[in-house]
Each structure stands twice: as structure tokens, then as C-alpha cells.
UniProtKB/TrEMBL annotation, chain A:
<feature type="transmembrane region" description="Helical">
    <location>
        <begin position="393"/>
        <end position="414"/>
    </location>
</feature>
<dbReference type="InterPro" id="IPR037272">
    <property type="entry name" value="SNS_sf"/>
</dbReference>
<feature type="transmembrane region" description="Helical">
    <location>
        <begin position="92"/>
        <end position="121"/>
    </location>
</feature>
<feature type="transmembrane region" description="Helical">
    <location>
        <begin position="228"/>
        <end position="252"/>
    </location>
</feature>
<feature type="transmembrane region" description="Helical">
    <location>
        <begin position="326"/>
        <end position="349"/>
    </location>
</feature>
<protein>
    <submittedName>
        <fullName>Sodium-dependent transporter</fullName>
    </submittedName>
</protein>
<feature type="transmembrane region" description="Helical">
    <location>
        <begin position="20"/>
        <end position="38"/>
    </location>
</feature>
<dbReference type="GO" id="GO:0016020">
    <property type="term" value="C:membrane"/>
</dbReference>
<keyword id="KW-0812">Transmembrane</keyword>
TrEMBL record, chain B:
<keyword id="KW-0812">Transmembrane</keyword>
<protein>
    <submittedName>
        <fullName>Methionine/alanine import family NSS transporter small subunit</fullName>
    </submittedName>
</protein>
<dbReference type="InterPro" id="IPR031596">
    <property type="entry name" value="MaAIMP_sms"/>
</dbReference>
<keyword id="KW-1133">Transmembrane helix</keyword>
<dbReference type="Pfam" id="PF16951">
    <property type="entry name" value="MaAIMP_sms"/>
</dbReference>
<keyword id="KW-0472">Membrane</keyword>
<feature type="transmembrane region" description="Helical">
    <location>
        <begin position="6"/>
        <end position="28"/>
    </location>
</feature>
């Protein structure tokens, strides 16, 4: 071993494979499972949607999960380091992923903080009889017109600061004492709170009408490409693939870990939670429709409207509403926090690998400025506008575009799928095989390319927000931000690595091949 | 609930939750080969 390698800082490792699985599930299960899946499923074919959804899970979601695992585990690094070792110039794709996480963390912390405040508000239903007026008025103090102001709202600033402190402390404590330990507490808590919510919702009058509406199939939808794209999109965004999280987490796994066996558990656990969320949310919406004397389709919403307007309305009407509120908003907090931690880990790990600083230092020099930016932009009267635009554009032209570029680059330009497939199959229980290479190399780029093109075309045709936002706002926080990520990724790639960094990778002679030979594994 | 919706509910639960159980059984019935491995080591590819 060279002098350089012996001087390199020791890489963190999950003490147990099960810690990794728990942390990966904690990352995958986020707000999208609770407030996005139910509405997408309902509006894109109901029960019939489950067919494209399951096809997407096995033909793209789980294969992409394996893809990220193989990269992080084989090349042993944060997204930029692993990508650098994989193909040299491909480091830029790693930085793109890090920057996507940087942007997402900025606004994700705000949503977690709002959910935390609403958990507290649930106890005495502080939102009163008009939750919508409360949200935009009393709580967010939303400016009438979309703009950028630094008019701070103390009621938003404080909880956001707490969310940042908690997240940064957990990340600074390391993968075992921080991330794994937090997930060990949070994930069972999430399951218990969510089961209370679903159990309570199912016994409300009208609940079964809601579940019925969610699962009544509209078979005609299956002939629409848009519905298939929605299914692939839901699976893709829900699984936290393609933006560095799974690459980073799997770089902390020991050599002989069963990668595909673990990936199948994570993939199915994420969808299992999503399905449970669908049942719980639509049972509650069925009750809301029943109380208002309207149809379920009249009350079905997603996102902020579902969480902070529809649910408070439901909690107002439901027996034991306070318990339901704490369970619902508490679930959002926990699901959001475990995802935020993983998003921050991507950024911190990327910076650490590049400049070689201890984790607590990286958290201080990167995490604190991020928290300040987040507070400056999100805890103001215009935070929601920033969040809405940024979320839309970073998802479509950050995560999706970045994943598309990574798959194309790795499958077709640097051509590393055979090495990755061999790596996956070496110590794994479920063979990835040639099927995996075909779907990742061919089907996934076609599907992601199609979704990306449709998003691009629709946003060119009609500016996002239906006229609510000025073109300059969309230009700066939407298109401009998405473009700036690529430019910044190139700049970061050009910056030198720390002294003694091992950025080369010998495909024939490395820790994995040595371990395999020692075990007598010839694959 | 109408019969079609009920069937789709049952099919979805059976496939997704069944998939989770099958994946967990597959993973945990085999010994975890990584469990006995040494802890942290330096980066590879030297």
C-alpha cells in the first residue's frame, strides 16, 4: 500500500448492514411518500395505477437503487469521489448531485419546521376554523405578490433554526452514532405514529369511500403514456435515487455486504410505506368529503395544500383530532428529518473527501452557511414562493436531468455497467445479471429522457405557476438556479483534490478484487 | 367499497407488502457475510 493511502483519513463504516438498511429506508421514506403518492395514484388511474407503478418499481426503481449502491460501494466514496474513481471527468456528475442536495436541503428544512409547528398547533387546533387563512396569514405571513424579501417571520425563523441544529448535530456525530442511531429511534416512531393515523382514519365515517376512490381502477388510463411517465416519476422521486444519497450511504458498507438483497428490502419497504400512506390519507379525505357533503375528488389535493390545509380541516372535525394531528404532523417531521439528514450527508461527505477535513469541521464550514442561507430565504414572508419554484426546478432539471446524464455517461460513454454488474453479483443474494444491465442501460435512459423532455417542453410552452410568477423570478430561482448547478459542478471539479487523495481506481487490483480472490470467488 | 376497488386494494397490498416480506426473508435467512469483517480501512485502489 502506498504512503499516500496510509495517510488518508479512515473512512466511516456502518457497524451493521441493518443500520444501513434502516438509514436507507429513512432516507427514501420522505414527504413525497405521504403527500405525493396518494394524489398521483388517485389522479392517474386509481387502482389501475398500481400496474404501471409496480412495473416501474421493478424495472427502474430497484435497478437504479442497485446502480447507486454499486457505484458507492465499489468506488468507496462520496458522490464526487466515487464518480471520479469511476470515470475521471464523471466527477462533475457527482458534484452536480452534491449541489442538488445543497439546494434541496435549503428548502426541505423549512417544510420540516412547519410540520413541527403544526404538530404543536394540533394539540389545541390553533389554526381555528379557517386553516387556509391561518396558513398563509397568521403562520407564513405570506407576501401578497411573489418576490424576494428579507422580511423575517420570527415564528418561522426559530423552528427552522432548531431543525438545522438537530440535523447538523446528527450528521456531525457520524454514521453510527448520528445517522444510524437517529434512524433506530425515528423509524419505529414513524411506523407507530403512522399506524395510529391510519387506524384512526379508517374508522371515521366516509373513510371507506375515500379508500374506494383511491383504488377504483380506471383502466382506460393505462393506454396513456403520461400515466406511465407519472408512475416512473413517482418511483424515481420517492426512492431517493440519482442524487448521491444512496451512493454516499453505500460507500459506508463493508466489502461482503449483500447489496441487492438489501436493496430489495429498501425498495419494497419504501413502496409499502407509500401504500399505507395512500390508504391513510384517502381514508381521511373520505371523511372530509363526507363531512362537507361533497365527492372525494373535490377534496383530493397533494403537497402543502394536503398537509397544511386539508389535514387541519380533517383534524378539526374528527373525534380525537388532536391525537390524529400529532400522529400526522409528527410523521411528517420524522419522515422529513430522516431524509434531510441523508441529504446533508451527501454534501458534507463530498466536501470532506475533496479537501480532507474532519467531519465536525466540515459540518461547521459547510452546514452552518447552508443553514444561514436557508433561514435567510425561507423564514421570510416570501419563503413559500422560493420553495415552490426551487422545488419544481431542482426536481426536474436537477435530480432528473442529473440522473439521466449519469446513466448515459456510465452506461454509454465510460461503459462501466459490466464492472458494476459483476460487483453487484459477487456477494449478493439476488442476481442482478444481464437483465439489470439492459434496464439500466436502455429502459431507464429512455424513460427518464422522455419524462425530462415532457417537463422541458411543458415549461417552455407555459411558464411554471400559471402566470403567478414573473419571468425574472422563474429565470433566477428556476432556470437560472438549475443552470448554475451545472456551472458550479464544473468549477468544483476543476478545483484540486486534497494532497494525498487517492482518486485513481484500478479495476483489476483493488480491495474488492483482493477480497474476492482471498475468498476464492471467481466472479 | 366496490368489488373492483377491493380487488385492486388486495392485489396492491399482496404484491407490495408481500414483496417486502419476501425480500426480508431472502435477506435474513442467509448469514450476513459482512458481519465478521474488520471495521474501517483506508481507501482502496492503491
Amino acid at each position: 500500500m502506498s504512503q499516500a493511502a496510509t495517510k488518508a483519513p479512515k473512512r466511516e463504516m456502518f457497524n451493521s448492514r441493518n443500520y444501513f438498511i434502516l438509514a436507507a429506508i429513512g432516507s427514501a421514506v420522505g414527504l413525497g411518500n405521504i403527500w405525493r403518492f396518494p394524489y398521483v395514484a388517485f389522479s392517474e388511474g386509481g387502482g389501475a395505477f398500481m400496474i404501471p407503478y409496480l412495473v416501474a418499481l421493478v424495472s427502474a426503481g430497484i435497478p437504479l437503487l442497485f446502480f447507486d449502491y454499486a457505484i458507492g460501494h465499489r468506488y468507496r466514496g462520496s458522490a464526487p469521489l466515487a464518480m471520479r474513481r469511476l470515470g475521471g471527468w464523471t466527477e462533475v456528475l457527482g458534484w452536480w448531485q452534491v449541489l442538488v442536495c445543497f439546494v434541496i436541503a435549503i428548502y426541505y428544512a423549512a417544510i420540516v419546521a412547519w410540520a413541527a409547528m403544526y404538530t404543536w398547533f394540533s394539540i389545541d387546533k390553533a389554526w381555528g376554523n379557517d386553516p387556509q387563512a391561518f396558513l398563509y396569514g397568521d403562520f407564513l405571513h405570506l407576501a401578497e405578490k411573489p418576490a424576494v424579501s428579507f422580511d423575517f417571520v420570527p415564528g418561522l425563523l426559530l423552528p427552522m433554526a432548531v431543525v438545522w441544529v438537530v440535523t447538523l448535530v446528527i450528521v456531525a456525530l457520524g454514521v453510527n452514532k448520528g445517522l444510524a442511531f437517529a434512524n433506530l429511534i425515528f423509524m419505529p416512531l414513524l411506523l407507530v405514529m403512522f399506524l395510529i393515523l391510519v387506524g384512526q382514519s379508517l374508522f371515521l365515517p366516509g373513510a371507506l369511500d375515500g379508500v374506494n376512490a383511491l383504488f377504483t381502477p380506471d383502466w382506460s388510463k393505462l393506454t396513456e403514456p403520461r400515466v406511465w411517465a407519472a408512475a416512473y416519476g413517482q418511483i424515481f422521486f420517492s426512492l431517493s435515487v440519482g442524487f448521491g444519497i444512496m451512493v454516499t450511504y453505500s460507500s459506508y458498507l463493508k466489502r461482503k455486504t449483500d447489496l441487492t438483497g438489501s436493496g430489495l428490502v429498501v425498495g419494497f419497504a419504501n413502496s409499502s410505506f407509500e401504500l399505507l400512506a395512500g390508504i391513510g390519507v384517502f381514508a381521511a379525505l373520505g371523511f372530509m368529503a363526507n363531512s362537507a357533503g361533497v365527492g372525494v375528488s373535490d377534496v383530493a389535493v397533494a403537497g402543502i395544500g394536503l398537509a397544511f390545509v386539508a389535514f387541519p380541516t380533517i383534524i378539526n372535525e374528527a373525534p380525537l383530532g388532536a391525537l390524529m394531528g400529532v400522529a400526522f404532523f409528527g410523521s411528517l417531521v420524522v419522515a422529513g428529518l430522516t431524509s434531510l439528514m441523508s441529504i446533508m450527508e451527501v454534501v458534507i461527505a463530498g466536501v470532506r473527501d475533496k479537501i480532507g477535513i474532519p467531519k465536525p469541521v466540515a459540518v461547521a464550514v459547510v452546514g452552518i452557511p447552508m443553514a444561514v442561507i436557508s433561514l435567510a430565504l425561507l423564514s421570510t414572508t416570501t419563503g413559500l414562493y422560493f420553495l415552490d419554484i426551487t422545488d419544481e426546478f431542482v426536481n426536474k432539471f436537477g435530480i432528473l436531468a442529473g440522473a439521466f446524464a449519469s446513466v448515459i455517461a456510465i452506461a454509454w460513454i465510460v461503459r462501466k455497467l459490466p464492472q458494476l454488474q459483476r460487483h453487484l453479483d459477487r456477494f449478493s443474494s439476488f442476481p442482478a445479471g444481464k437483465f439489470w444491465m439492459w434496464v439500466v442501460g436502455l429502459l431507464v435512459p429512455v424513460v427518464l429522457g422522455y419524462i425530462l423532455y415532457s417537463e422541458f417542453a411543458s415549461k417552455i410552452k407555459e411558464p411554471y405557476g400559471g402566470g403567478d410568477y414573473s419571468l425574472s423570478m422563474l429565470g433566477v430561482f428556476g432556470w437560472g438556479m438549475a443552470g448554475a448547478l451545472v456551472v458550479a459542478a464544473i468549477v468544483l471539479t476543476l478545483l484540486p483534490w486534497r494532497r494525498n487523495a487517492v482518486v485513481e481506481f484500478n479495476e483489476e487490483h483493488n480491495e474488492h478484487e483482493i477480497a474476492a480472490r482471498a475468498e476464492g470467488v471467481t466472479k | 367499497m366496490n368489488p373492483e376497488a377491493l380487488i385492486m386494494l388486495i392485489v396492491a397490498i399482496a404484491l407490495v407488502w408481500g414483496g417486502l416480506v419476501a425480500a426480508a426473508v431472502n435477506l435474513f435467512r442467509r448469514p450476513d457475510q459482512s458481519a465478521g469483517e474488520d471495521l474501517p480501512h483506508t481507501p482502496s485502489s492503491t
